[in-house]
Amino acid sequence: MVSVNGRLVESVPCSDMRPDVQAAKASVDGRVGFHAQLSLDDGDIVRVTTPQGKPLHHSPWLYLPPESDGWLPASLTANHPEYSGVADFSESLAWKRFQPLFGQLGDISAVKFDSGDGPMVAHPGMSPDDAGRIHRFYKRVLTPAGIASPALRHQQGIGERQMLIFDFFPGKPLDRHGPGWEAWLPAVMVELERLQQFGEQHREGLKVRGGRKPPLVNHLFRQALGDALRWDRAHGERRFLLWLVTRLKRLPQVLSHGDLHRENVLVDTERGNIALVDWDRWDYLPVGFDLARLMRGLAGDTVEQLTGGSHAQRLGVVGFTYLLQRHDRPAMVNSEEGEALRRRCRELAGSLL
């Protein structure tokens, strides 16, 4: 399903037969790829999804003319349907040109703009509470702890909304580096360890306040417990799920990013630097959750090898990997991989007794 600026323009069937895809049952009939002719203007946003609404990898796409050098004129925000949410901010900051930046769900989560003193990134449309929490977290944790993250310059309000403005980090998300992205994991783990150490030293001063977004780990626990109570979905793992959730909840609670998927890790390959972004879900969470979410999609034995660390951290990573894998691939539960993960969880838990 192909849409331009939120409007469906056509439904296109996949046309290229791939025997390897068919053998792997990765599509209904083994066909992949499609061809569609579109009439586009500068700044148009193309989204491609399955009929069920699931976006294709790296969708949406932004159309830019070759001569644009990646920038769009700020005047485009005044009447373009995709940029109406940032029009007020562009007027307030006197932007000359901008680039939309997309979040994991394909929405415009931030805007890169030319400030006259160099590129910066604005996150518009926040509530005062959300913006204030992130601002305080930068001031109390990220800056004093020296966590690799773009510097927060200031907070600005327009009407009932707030905007946070950061330095621009010249990198691209870890998820878009293709094969070999795992080479950056040690650098990420260094930052997580620094965050955990700082969080332990200042735990009393970092109490989590009400009104926050609920931790994503809670949703994972609820789903697992719900499946454990439904005989038609538990597939014989009911007792294991109840045991696993109990064990994971008993793990040490460490200061965590809370939403560390690979789109939230930026990598500058030229300078060898990384930056962790989108800290609105920070919390004290079971050790291993951040790493399991970061490595989502990798096999369980691979995840544990890449992680290392204490038995508690290994159990957290392997246990949360199991919960994430069964969510993404329900058939995994009855596979050899699923049995191996369950066995490894029990072994790691036994070593902690």
Automatic annotation (TrEMBL):
Gene3D superfamilies the UniProt entry points to: 3.90.1200.10
Domain of life: Bacteria
The protein's name: Aminoglycoside phosphotransferase domain-containing protein
Domain Aminoglycoside phosphotransferase stretches: 121-297
Annotated source species: Halomonas huangheensis
Alphabetical list of Pfam families matching this protein: APH (PF01636)
InterPro entries: Aminoglycoside_PTrfase, Kinase-like_dom_sf
